[in-house]
What we know:
By secondary structure, the chain is mostly beta strands. It has strands at about 5, 10, 20-30, 35-45, 55-60, 70-79. The strands form two sheets. Strands 1, 2, 4 and 5 form a four-stranded antiparallel beta sheet that branches. Strands 3-6 form a two-stranded antiparallel ribbon. The protein starts with a strand and ends with a strand. The model has no long low-confidence stretch (mean pLDDT about 90).
Amino acid sequence: MNFGRPPETATCTSIGKVLLGGGGQVTSSQTPGRGVLTQAFPVSSNSNSIYDEYTAQGQIVSTVNPGETYSVTAYAVCG
């Protein structure tokens, strides 16, 4: 079963900082290994095309137990 999640975004919030890299993680509340990262990419939130955000999206790829939840976390490395 595929249960898609909305993408999550991490942002470089300090003035003058730019995105150096990033990543993402999918975690389950009950069973590790059920989730996969389906997309992870840099994003520019401004008009000068300098990357300052990192977006990650994931999904669960097996049957979900009753009450099981999962989350997607995006990480940005800024400098």
